[in-house]
Amino acid sequence: MAETIPTKAQLMERLADSFSGYYGDFTLAAADAGLSASQAKTLGVLRAPASMRALATTLACDASNITGIVDRLEKRDLVRREVSPNDRRVKNVVLTPAGEETVDAIRARMHTTHAALDALDDADRAALYDLLGRVFCGARGPRDTT
Prior knowledge:
The model is unreliable at 141-146 (pLDDT under 50). This protein has a three-stranded antiparallel sheet. A hairpin with a 7-residue loop joins strand 2 (79-83) and strand 3. The chain is mainly α. It has helices spanning 8-32, 37-45, 52-58, 63-75, 97-108, 111-118, 122-137; strands at 50-51, 79-83, 91-95.
């Protein structure tokens, strides 16, 4: 029996379903940590320091929205602002040790996602990792968040 090759529309629908499940799991885990999904997502992209402008671009939101998110995270000592070593006019946002622990705790609480990934064998995990990197990371390559 010949394998049916999905259309782009079918792939996009599968991605939407997958991301919806992942995002739901992520949102619940963030709420358990007392954070909004936007706050948790901001922490997750800060494994490397980033300027406020870069954060706004990465998170696809207005710079004024990032300011509010960072203000709330800073009040909880999850991030801090530092002067950029390259341009003193630019403030970089940096994860604090508490912020790093919070990101790890959120990802650890994503039980549905963990169960789904645990159901994959090593070959399937490697293939998924490769495909996600090729499809979504493009020229910059997959980020290693281990």
